[in-house]
Design goal:
The complex is a heterodimer of chains A (425) and B (143). By secondary structure, chain A is an alpha/beta fold. Chain A has three domains: 31-115, Orthogonal Bundle (Fumarate Reductase Iron-sulfur Protein, Chain B, domain 2), CATH 1.10.1060.10; 123-278, 3-Layer(aba) Sandwich (Rossmann fold), CATH 3.40.50; 282-413, Rossmann fold, CATH 3.40.50. Helix content of chain A is 47%, strand content 9%. Chain A contains 20 helices and eleven strands. Chain A has helices spanning 2-27, 32-36, 44-48, 59-67, 71-77, 88-92, 99-113, 127-136, 168-171, 179-192, 208-212, 217-234, 244-257, 261-264, 270-279, 303-306, 315-325, 356-372, 381-393, 405-409, and strands at residues 155-156, 161-164, 197-198, 238-241, 266-269, 283-285, 295-300, 331-333, 375-378, 401-404, 413-415. In chain A, the strands form four sheets. Chain A has a four-stranded parallel beta sheet, with helices on both faces. In chain A, strands 2-4-5 form a three-stranded parallel beta sheet. A two-stranded parallel ribbon of chain A has the order 1-3. In chain A, helix 19 (381-393) links the parallel strand 9 and strand 10 (401-404). In chain A, helix 8 (127-136) crosses helix 12 (217-234) and helix 18 packs across helix 19. The model of chain A has no long low-confidence stretch (mean pLDDT 87). Chain B has 143 residues and is α/β, with parallel strands linked by helices. Chain B has five helices and four strands. In chain B, strands 2-1-3-4 form a four-stranded parallel beta sheet, sandwiched between helices. The mean pLDDT of chain B is 89. The chains are: A alpha/beta (425), B alpha/beta (143). Chain A binds chain B through residues 2, 6, 124-127, 130-131, 133-134, 137-145, 169-170, 172-174, and chain B through 3, 56-58, 61-62, 64-65, 96-97, 99-100, 102-105, 140-142.
């Protein structure tokens, strides 16, 4: 009897191995040279590389070294942990070589080599990636606090529309009022939807940071499997998120693992969601304060919503259309010097390398913002946190207010057919 | 063979507890407990740190991730810190960190305790009490 169960257990283990290998093959390409063969060394990538402005980092040289057969040297030197993964190089590459993807794969190789443990160089001692990794384990029970939900909002376990909160409750540990993003987003969705919105109490991380930053693909696959299973249980067809990173992961990286993901679920960023409702004529913008003062504001494009999406995405234009419309109610939208696909990076990606060099990049960005407006809007919670962090260190920037997209719009939005269940806060 | 060993273990659950002791008070307290022959269960693994303020929340999460059943951080009493304010930092930090542990349902498995160098008996009591609590909660890793 014992023997039979043991053999069955062994079989199960083998099957699981094959299963995860199958998934791993979909997101991992072991042959780096194959990906780089198109490169003809025009070195535009090194010219536009954002981190190269503050430290020595030349993508074109790294590519050439890999092509000439020095792949091991590049991997042993660990230089690729410094990449910001802002994708500026892909935007300017005439041959469409996806350098960020190469860095991601090389990071996985670097981790397997085990020369130096990169976990020690992650910002905040790697506490946030650790949380994501813990969520991928089966023995952890997640129970999120739901006391931030505004009064009158109907939520349930099952329904048509799902709001994916993301890591915001975890950030509350070190960063102030990160949950206000979730609160204002849910308030907007609740006012527009008649059915209750699905909020998962046991929601887990989307795995973005493990996928791009720390290259822990196995944990990422586990998280993706759990997430898809959980989404299917709720019966939702639309997933709305306020996070740029979650949006990109659901829209592009999950379909790599599960081909049918895009057919089953329609993923929408809150910008797209509001824009659609506005075009349908369900939403108006009104200013609650009746003063003639014109407030200049500007918009910081997160990399995941500009350079990391396919070229035919409309989010960049949609958000600007909304902002230009706001001129009627006394908000004047102005572009920063670097905008849209050319916008500067906030300096940190997936909790890697927060140091004086990335702070220099952030300083530059805030200088640009200060020159054109008093409010700075962004649609990535992490950009908001990173920029707010630097703002505290310098008094010059105390006049700028850094807000998330939904935090900015929650007071200005007016619903034409108001949902009577929702009262004001 | 492995499965048989596990079954024997299952009969009585011996938790693995990680204990951070500050060099100046709690480690000396643990030493005193040993010298004075106060009995406490052999479930803890002591890690000596210079101050309880040195303990990062990431250490605790990593311990739980690798399957430890409980973590206890001990330090000098408030006001007695060798580095003046180290334990106050630790207290504030873990107060906020408890919110994160609550999301993972781990807050019952974590404890912050002040033990001074003369409190050998108290150290033994704290460890015994915490071990009993973890035994009631059961193992974290589902075997």
């Amino acid at each position: 009897m014992n023997l039979i169960t043991e053999i069955e257990n062994l079989k199960k283990v083998k099957q699981e191995e094959n299963d995860s290998n199958l998934y791993l093959r979909k997101i991992y390409e072991p042959d780096l040279i194959n990906l780089l063969k198109k490169c003809y060394q025009c070195a535009r990538c090194s010219g536009v590389c954002q981190i190269s402005k503050v430290q020595k980092f030349t993508p074109s040289r790294i590519i050439q070294m890999i092509l000439e057969g020095f792949e091991d040297e590049i991997i042993n030197s660990q230089v690729l942990w410094d990449c910001l993964m802002c994708n500026s190089c892909l935007e300017h590459c005439p041959k469409d070589i996806n350098f960020a993807d190469i860095v991601r794969i090389a990071r996985y190789k670097m981790r397997l080599k085990d020369i130096q443990n990169p976990d020690r160089s992650i910002a905040h001692k790697g506490i946030y990636p650790l949380m994501s990794e813990m969520m991928s384990q089966d023995n952890m029970e997640i129970e999120r606090p739901l006391d931030w939900i505004p009064k009158g909002c109907k939520t349930s376990d099952k329904g048509n529309i799902l709001y994916y909160v993301g890591c915001l409750p975890f950030f509350n540990y070190e960063f102030e009022d990160s949950l206000s993003i979730a609160e204002s987003t849910l308030k907007i969705i609740c006012q527009l939807e008649k059915d209750p919105v699905v909020i998962l109490k046991d929601e887990i991380c989307c795995g973005h940071d493990l996928y791009w930053g720390q290259a822990k693909f196995e944990s990422f696959i586990e998280l993706a499997k759990k997430n898809v299973k959980r989404f299917e249980e709720t019966g939702a067809t639309t997933i709305v998120t306020a996070c740029a990173e979650c949006y990109r992961t659901f829209k592009i990286d999950y379909p790599k693992l599960f081909e049918e993901f895009n057919k089953k679920f329609e993923v929408k960023h809150i910008i797209e969601y509001i824009f659609d409702k506005w075009k349908q004529g369900k939403v108006l913008f009104k200013n609650p304060n009746k003063s003639d003062e014109v407030i200049p504001f500007t918009y910081h494009d997160p990399c995941r919503l500009s350079r990391f999406l396919p070229k035919d995405n409309k989010i960049i234009e949609e958000v600007r259309e909304i902002f230009k419309h706001l001129k009627i109610i006394g908000y004047n939208f102005k572009e920063m010097e670097h905008n849209k696909e050319n916008s500067y990076c906030c300096g940190v990606n997936s909790w890697m390398n927060c140091n004086e060099r990335s702070k220099a990049l952030r300083y530059k960005r805030l200088l640009e913002a200060k020159a054109v407006g008093t409010k700075m809007i962004t649609s990535c919670p992490k950009c908001r946190m990173h920029l707010n962090c630097l703002k505290k260190d310098y008094e010059d920037f105390s006049s700028i207010e850094i807000l998330d997209f939904s935090e900015f719009l929650v007071d200005l939005i007016k619903i034409i057919e108001p949902n009577k269940n929702v009262e004001g806060k | 063979m492995i499965s048989k060993e596990k079954k024997v273990k299952n009969k009585e659950f011996h938790p693995n507890i990680l204990c951070f002791c500050c060099n100046w008070c709690s480690y000396a307290g643990a030493d005193l407990a040993g010298v004075s022959r106060f009995q406490y269960p052999p479930t803890i693994r002591i890690v000596r740190v210079m101050c309880s303020g040195r303990v990062d929340p990431a250490f605790i999460l990593e311990a739980f991730k690798d399957g430890i059943d409980g973590v206890i951080v001990t330090g000098c009493h408030i006001g007695d810190c060798h580095y003046l304010k180290g334990n106050e930092f630790a207290r504030d930090r873990f107060e906020r960190f408890r919110e994160v542990l609550k999301i993972f349902n781990l807050d019952k498995r974590f404890r912050l305790e002040w033990v001074s160098a003369s409190e050998g008996k108290r150290f033994a009591e704290v460890i015994t009490e915490f071990t009993n609590k973890i035994k009631k909660l059961g193992p974290l890793q589902a075997i």
